[in-house]
Structure formats: structure tokens, C-alpha cells
Amino acid sequence: MVARATRRTGYTLIELAVVITIIAILAALAVPAMTQWMANARLKEAARQVADAFTLARENAIRTGDYQIVFFQKDMLGAALLSNGLPVPILTLDDGRPGTAGQNCRINAAKNQTAVNAQAGVNWGVVFANVRAPNDTGAGPWPTVTGSTFADPTGAGTTWVMFGPNGIPVGVTAACVAGQTGSGSGTIYISNPYRDYAISLSPLGGVYVSTWNQTAAPPAWRQ
């Protein structure tokens, strides 16, 4: 009587080891790519938030007739920006009508404020770029420290810009002395270990976002 052949079921230890090794290799290749993708997504979102802060400040200035000040990193006294006691990278302040007693460029609880939450891994300044963005008409220095080229009427770099009631940005000193209409143009630069972004504000209040293309020949800003 011939014995019936039995069907093999299951896997051998060697087969399982090979599958586990393949999965481990694929995971090792995927994790860095996923990490970079997530970091770049957060950086892109941060750039959008900066652009939105400029746009909304301009719109609110026109709508209310009040000065609107966008602060980034620090206020005019050099203090870190806080919202509900927590540090924030961007804060927009409704500074009131021109010529009124409360219009003094100072942040206090009585004034309307809009804060932007920080994105993890996003830094001020640039990592790769070595020239200014195409729409950067700011008078401030190359943004190695403050991350911006905004300046006050004397040419000193600032961490703020003010929108007049007509929606046009103006440079303003730490003592709240405003410059001429259109003097508030400049650019904020932000980065992560993989990419640089530039968010530019034109003399008339237009907003432009550029990213540094490191793979171009030669490398250049791209809108």
C-alpha cells in the first residue's frame, strides 16, 4: 500500500529569519525618508503660518483702521513672545488707532493678539541658501541671527514689522517711531536640516513664499 504524500504547512525558522531580515532592511530604509518628509511638512506649514500672519495683519489693518504689528521671536523690549504664558514664534498685535494713547507698540493683555504655535524642528535663518530670496527688499542684514531682513527707519535689524491703517507695511523703531509708507518690506527665513524657506513681504504688502533648491545648477530660490 502506497503512503499518501502529506502537504507541508507552516514555515521553517530559516524562512522566518529571512522575512524578518527583509522587513528590517525595508524599515531601516523607510524611516529616514519618512523622518525627512515629516520634517519638511512641518517646515512648509510653518512657512504658510508666517505668510498667513502677514496677510491677516494687513487685512485687519485695513478693516479696523488700527496699526497691526507682527512680532517674530521677540518684542520691542527684547523679551520672548508669550501667549497664555507659553512661548510662541509669531504674535500679531492690534496696537490701536494712530495717535491714541494706547498706540505704543507694546504688548499687553488689553490689546487683541493672535499667536502662531511653533512647529517642531523649525529654526530661524538658513542652512543652505547663500543669497537673498528674489522678493527680499529688506534693509536689514543677512539673517544669520534674527532670521529676518526687516529693519527700522535707521536701518537696524528688527524682529517686527508694522502695518498702517492702509495695509502698507512700515518700519518702526523700538521706541515706536514709524518710518515712511512702504519702508516695512523684508523677509523671514526659516529652515530645518534639509530645506530653507523664505517668506517675503513687499513694500506694498504682497506676500511671497520661496524655497531654496539645492539640487539646481547652480542652486537657487524657487517660488
Architecture overview:
The protein is an alpha+beta fold and 223 residues long. The protein has a domain at 13-64 and 120-222. Helix content is 23%, strand content 23%. The protein contains 1 helix and 12 strands. The strands form 3 sheets. Strands 5-4-1-7-8 form a 5-stranded antiparallel beta sheet, covered by helices on one side. Strands 6-9-10-11-12 form a 5-stranded antiparallel beta sheet, covered by helices on one side.
Strands of the biggest beta sheet: in what spatial order? 5-4-1-7-8
**What is the residue-averaged pLDDT?**
91
Largest sheet: 5 strands, antiparallel
Q: What's the alpha carbon Rg, rounded to whole Å?
A: 25 Å
* Unreliable stretches covering 5 or more consecutive residues: none
The N- and C-terminal alpha carbons lie at a distance of 81 Å
Keywords:
1 helix, five-stranded antiparallel β-sheet, 223 residues, alpha+beta
What does the secondary structure layout of this molecule look like, with pairings?
Layout: H1 13-64, E1 67-72, E2 82-83, E3 86-87, E4 90-96, E5 113-116, E6 123-124, E7 160-163, E8 169-170, E9 186-191, E10 196-201, E11 207-213, E12 220-222
Antiparallel strand pairs: 1-4, 1-7, 2-3, 4-5, 6-9, 7-8, 9-10, 10-11, 11-12
Could you provide a short overview of the structure?
The protein contains one helix and twelve strands. It is α+β, with helices and mostly antiparallel strands and 223 residues long. The termini are far apart.
